[in-house]
Amino acid sequence: MKTVLLFKEIYSDQFRSIKNYVVRHYFKAFTWFTMAMFAMVLYVFLFRLFTDFPFANF
């Protein structure tokens, strides 16, 4: 739990130090987009893993 709080504090401090409105919002949008893509990849991988998808057809 300490690690999550530390990550949140570092993340918040970094965005507070960026003064440019456009850059700050661009990086926030990019962060959410990256997290969404990672969640999608993780979901698809776990779905294929649990539905016995043949990863290698030898």
Describe, in plain words, how this protein is organized in 3D.
Pfam families: DUF6747. The chain crosses the membrane at residues 29-50. Keywords: Membrane, Transmembrane, Transmembrane helix. InterPro entries: DUF6747 (IPR046635). The chain is an all-alpha fold and 58 residues long. The chain contains two helices and no strands. It is elongated, with a radius of gyration of 18 Å. It starts with a helix and ends in an 8-residue tail after the last helix.
Give the radius of gyration. 18 Å
Q: Assembly state here?
A: single chain
Mean pLDDT: 83
Task: Please give the share of residues in helix.
Answer: over 70%
Instruction: Estimate what percentage of residues fall within beta strands.
Output: under 5%
Question: How many strands?
Answer: 0
- Tally of DSSP helical segments: 2
Principal-axes shape call: elongated
The biggest beta sheet is recorded as:
none
Order of helices and strands: HH
Helix-strand category: mainly alpha
Give the low-confidence spans: none
Distance between the termini: 44 Å
Transmembrane segments: 29-50
InterPro entries: DUF6747 (IPR046635)
Pfam families: DUF6747
Keywords: Membrane, Transmembrane, Transmembrane helix
